[in-house]
Predict the 3D structure of the following.
Amino acid sequence: VLRTEIYIPARRRDVVSLVILLLFALLLGRFYYLQIYRYEKYSLLADANRIRMVTQPAPRGNILDRKGEILAANQSIYAISVIKDELIDEDVQMDMMEKYLDRDKRDLQQNLKKYYQGRFLPALIARNVSIAKLSLIEEHKNELPGVFSTKLPVRFYPNVKNVRASHILGYLREINNSELNAMKEGDYVLGDYLGFQGLEKLYENRLRGVKGAEFRQVDALGREVGILIDREPIASSPGENLHLTIDAGLQSRTESLLEGKRGAAVIINAETGEILAMVSKPDFPLIDFSAGMDLDKWQSYSTDESRPLLNRAVLGLYPPGSSFKLITTIAALEQGLVDDKWSVQCTGSYEFGDRTFGCWREGGHGRVNLSRAIVESCNVYFYQLVQRMDIDTWAAYVKLFGFGSPTGIDLPDENDGVVAERAYMNKKYGRWGWAEGSLLHLAIGQGDILVTPLQMAQFIGIVAMKGDQYRPKLVKKKTKDRVVRIPIKSATWRTIHKMTFDVVNKRGGTAFDKELAASDVSAHGKTGTAENPHGDPHAWFVGFAEGKGETIAISLIIENGGTGGSTAAPIASKLIKSYFRVGDATLAADL
């Protein structure tokens, strides 16, 4: 048998072997690179093809009143998210979702573009989806790869005792790009909500909690198969609860008495600075902003001339009117410029230079001493009294009680107010642009003096405590605040307490209340009527009441309400009687 042998030279055989060896080495190198050196990266990519991480938002902390009544809690809403890279036919699937969700396709596409964060990351396209529409998505999920539902926590307001507390609680708003860029990376993403006003804003870090995550298994088309059992979910941590100083019953009663009016009221525990009630009217239902700020509603509120979004209690600026006669009196008593024996004749007006300054009682009060001037609120008496001091001395006493500066309450925004002194007047009007007659206006709370209702509540609280000043607060603290002592003589406090008591308890007093006068509650007050160039005057009442081992201070203003004695004082009396259960008066807590 003939056999043919193929002869391969040794050199060629060596070359072939070397090539095979090199190819094998390259394969080993690539294997090492993929399986060892770049294991983490490609493991993540492999997981991304079968695992979907769904962020679990953290429920915000609840907000409760001083007795544990829940004022703001959470409830869940459904939302739809998509992973853009898993959409097989984006246009077709968007058409389907437009139909099933009853949402405009352009809005869905705009949201997808807005919230797109990268490959394999979900983008929120619709929130607040009803159960019925969610069911349609679930029924057709095989036709909608890359589309899935999630639950989002949103604010819920139990409306306990009909409390709204809109301006205290504040509301949430979706984070914008500029805010997001200023945040620590990872804390927020587009689509998240954060506190925008009130306590929700100031205590955002305490309320928001920590997000969690859930891992879901998906097939090659991005359709969910189920929850992964080999990877533990990361539980979200709810935010911290806030326990407020607010008394829901008193808050409700105050809101109801101011309903339909424009104004504000602040009631403080004078012994601690704790805010028991804070109301600004008109207000708004917080539920309007709980699941996202509706643009039409926002524009409606923000353009409303009654300004329902404004917290008048801390941002409203008003002349204090005759309630400021208390400070003029304190300044005069401290300097020894007046006693109860000094009197003036009130004829209903007072001539100063070439100007006439009027009294609210056109026929005049007759011969008036200090006590009667406070009880009956005689302007002419204070026109003459204030001429015994200069404007800077008067302003120094005003500032001593915190006017012209924020109180430091735990809210994100607060107005300082305006206190006129010589430097201020020179800057505003020029050295020769104002006259000493300006001081006559200031003495009765008119002219270049503007205050907030909260500042007035703090002031009358200091009066109640005879010089002890506590910082106003809305959130309960475990430690006591430092007390600031206002250096006023005991004799001055005795005089002020006697006169303010007579305003409420003596016939002829501008805030006389027969029922309070006959009760065990020691009620004090001072009314004010603040002239308003834009309409009817504003009605003021400031006062305090002692009973059952408690002392509360109250400040109340009704815009364009007329006189303090006819409008503000009766409301304040009802609040005092409700709080101390005088007669038939009750709080919402009793109902």
